[in-house]
Amino acid sequence: MVLVDTSIWIDFFQSPDSPAAENLARLIVGLNQVKLCGIVLQEVLQGIRGTYNFELVQERLLRFPFVDTDRETWLQAAILYRSLRARGITVPTTDAAIAALAIQHNLLLFSRDHHFEIIATDTTLRLY
Asked: What is the value of pTM for the model shown?
């Protein structure tokens, strides 16, 4: 299963012919392998202008299996963030949480965000 990050969803909705969007379409249609989490749901939806588009995208996203965060997710995100920061690497808090969630649930993470490549070098985060 693949946890899909905001950057890929934006490509999917705004640039459907992009390689990332095409890969996501294959994961959805051919393999039914996509999962969604709260932070990504929020980030995607908060950037949509117009009520009609918001409702359309919301309806489509809510069809995907949802991965919930729990106390352990947030603890691991904090540990991950602190570990990186101790080495002089600062990542957004949301990226640390998404990475921790993917690691916790043994999910591949599909993203175009370079922060995840950095995180993957020192953790068990697996990228799609």
From this structure: 0.94
Task: For residue 4, give both structure tokens.
Answer: 């899909």
Q: Which CATH superfamily is domain 68-128 in?
A: 5'-nuclease (3.40.50.1010)
| pLDDT mean over 57-64 | 96
pLDDT on residue 122: 84
The sign one gets for the Cα dihedral 39, 44, 49, 55 is negative
Q: What is the pLDDT of residues 80-94, one digit of tens each?
A: 999 999 999 999 999
Architecture (CATH level 2) of domain 6-67:
3-Layer(aba) Sandwich (3.40)
**C-alpha dist (Å) from residue 92 to 2, 33, 82:** 21, 26, 12
Terminal alpha carbon distance of the chain: 10
CA distance 7 to 41: 12
Half-sphere exposure of 50 (CA within 13 A, CB side): 4
- What residue ranges do the domains of the chain occupy? 6-67, 68-128
pLDDT more than 70, % of the chain: 100
